[in-house]
Amino acid sequence: MQYIIAFVAIVVAFVIIKKVASCLIRSIVGIVLVAVLAYLYFMYLR
Q1: In the prediction, which pLDDT does 22 show?
Q2: What angle do CA 13, 23, 31 make, to 5 degrees?
Q3: Cα dist. 44→2, 24, 37 in Å?
Q4: Given this model, what pLDDT does residue 21 score?
Q5: 25 in helix, strand or coil?
Q6: What is the pLDDT of residues 1-45, one digit of tens each?
Q7: For 46, what's the count of Cα atoms within 13 Å in the CB-facing half-sphere?
Q8: Burial zone of 36 (CB within 10 Å; 0-12 exposed, 13-18 middle, 19+ buried)
Q9: What is the CA radius of gyration of the chain?
């Protein structure tokens, strides 16, 4: 289940990054994605 959520999060982030040209927003999206994946990792695989 967490693999599906991680895959969807990566796809959504990729689409957002492709549509948005600003480097700042890319950085924010990347940081949020990493935080979400880290949260999922620690909650489900611990």
Answers
A1: 65
A2: 45
A3: 7, 30, 11
A4: 58
A5: helix
A6: 778 887 888 888 887 777 765 677 778 888 898 998 888 888 887
A7: 6
A8: middle
A9: 12
